[in-house]
Amino acid sequence: MKSRFWKSILGIITFLALGLSARAETGVTADEIVLGQSAAFKGPAAGLGTEVWRGAQACFDKVNAEGGVNGRKIRVAALDDGYEGDVTLPNTVKLVTQEKVFGLFDYVGTPTLVKALPAIQQFSGDGLFLFSAFSGAQPQREAPNDKFVFNIRASYRQETAALVKNLTKLGLKKIGVFIQDDAYGRSGEDGVVRALKSEGLTLTAETTYQRNVPYETSMAPAMGALKASGCQAVIAVGAYTQCAAFIRDARNAGWDVPIANLSFVGADQLLKKLGEEGKTSGKDMTAHLVNSQVVPPWTDTSVPLVAEYREAVDKDNPQLPAELQDPNYKPAQYSFGALEGYLDAKAFVEILKKTPANLTRASFIKAAESSKSLNVGGVPLSFSKSNHQASNKVFFTTVENGQWTSLKDWKGLVK
């Protein structure tokens, strides 16, 4: 009797100990892992945060439906920052101190993230980390931030270097920039300047616009300045609303030089605006465009990741909570932003599978830094203790028959 009694007591103690250990880490319970996200869900950049969220949520929904990871489902506590850093900072503090998140996930934008990084650094002493950000800027890739930020995507320096290399091969030596006047635009411009220097060239001209100005804003002065400088090509470092306005004004003025956008722009939202503009004006707004991307085209279902993403979105069609939805933005069926969000979430899940059942921030970071050969749906990723950027791959797309497709003939941009 005594033996059975003490066995029962020991069993209860073990059960309680396991339960307490499962609840010991912030943002982790026996059946849930909570991540925190601050992104633009409303306003002129609503499409950026909305699409990234939808792609990630499609992945998490799929994993949760299968029972989660080690019995834990993944939930994202999301807050809107309207693409304004002064909102991202308090959002970050709220996510950490009130929502008690395990980690931060898929922040959107450079001017927003740079405002949050000092706070994240402060909390990183308790093991807090940011996994993936929809930004290719340098601050989160450099000390001290590179210790607690895990990037998936290639950097803006890599995107701009690849763009400059291919444009100059066409004989286009006079390259100008149209940039958002903030940390994002400056980061992209820095990449262009560095790339041009490596080719023995300098920047021909720079023009700027203010973040979040409406589509109706005239970009003719900026376009005119670039044209007057003799630019043969323009690299735009901005968001879809304002870059579409710039392209609109350039094409309406008969200026048909190649215009390149970076991955962050929101290529699908950009194309939608240009398509609508073309129907109104009767002009083709999509000729001579190139967009660098950090994920394969979502049209290429030969890539397992793309096929899986599309199947997941078709099945669940995730929708933002009502309080986060922008009534003026209609989510796309598929998009580059959503595919990137799906990739980020899948990478997070694959690393999570490598952690012990007694999940801690420290064990997740250790698992991430040990992931030197992740293959996520045919997309190779690699982290290490000294490398917190998983991919260096840059893809290129152009518009054909009203749809983004892989760019195979750069010479077609100048024909």
Sheet with the most strands: spatial strand order? 7-6-8-9-10-13-14
Q: At the third CATH level, what is the topology name of the largest domain? A: Rossmann fold
CATH class of the largest domain equals Alpha Beta
Give the topology string: H per helix, E per strand: HEHEHEHEEHEHEHEHEHEHHHEEEE
- Helices, by number, come to 12
> Which structural category do the helix and sheet elements fall into?
alpha/beta
> What is the count of distinct domains?
2
DSSP strand count:
14
Q: Rounded to an integer, what's the Rg over CA atoms? A: 23 Å
Relative strand content: 15-25%
Mean pLDDT: 94
CATH architecture of the largest domain: 3-Layer(aba) Sandwich
Structure description:
- With 415 residues, the protein is of the alpha/beta class.
- The chain has two domains: 21-154 and 298-384, Rossmann fold (3-Layer(aba) Sandwich), CATH 3.40.50.2300; 156-293 and 396-414, Rossmann fold (3-Layer(aba) Sandwich).
- It has twelve helices and 14 strands.
- The strands form three sheets. The protein has a seven-stranded mixed sheet with strand order 7-6-8-9-10-13-14, sandwiched between helices. It has a five-stranded parallel sheet with strand order 2-1-3-4-5, with helices on both faces.
- A hairpin with a 2-residue loop joins strand 13 (395-400) and strand 14 (403-406).
- Helix 2 (46-65) crosses helix 10, helix 5 packs across helix 6 and helix 8 (240-252) runs parallel beside helix 9.
- The chain starts with a helix and ends in a 9-residue tail after the last strand.
